[in-house]
Amino acid sequence: MKTILPAILALGTALSAATPALAVQDVDTVKLGVLNCTVEGGTGWVFGSSKDLACTYAPADGSAEEVYVGTINKFGIDVGVTGKALMSWAVVAPADSAYASGQLAGDYVGASAEATFAAGLGANVLVGNSDSSIALQPVSIQAQEGVNVAAGIAELKLVGVQG
Fold this sequence. Notes:
Layout: H1 4-22, E1 29-39, E2 42-59, E3 66-94, E4 106-127, E5 135-161
Antiparallel strand pairs: 1-2, 1-3, 2-3, 3-5, 4-5
């Protein structure tokens, strides 16, 4: 417990420091939908980790869901072993943007922090892919099991899956 409390405090500090820097300033935004992902478990190797994920995008307008696969890479402190994690992000963009099917494919980057002891929490604020101004904002804190402490930069790579 003595090591988990500092990790949780670091989580809050990292996210509060990163969030303003990643926020879109003076731009009206719209929530396009929700991206729900299952992240495979794995081991953090002190300076980072790479885990596969499978995601479903549910558009807010009720149109057909889209399926994506990819990886989430974390760079920074990442020590421990975790089981599968569930993560959800709100997909947001400038209000004047039009969404095209498959547009979530691409690379995203942002701040990442988590603390896990048996059952834990974490969050990843990820900003735009190279082809658009889409941002992924945490809807719920990730739920995972294992023993892990991580803080640093996260990179998410998504590839569309044809259904």
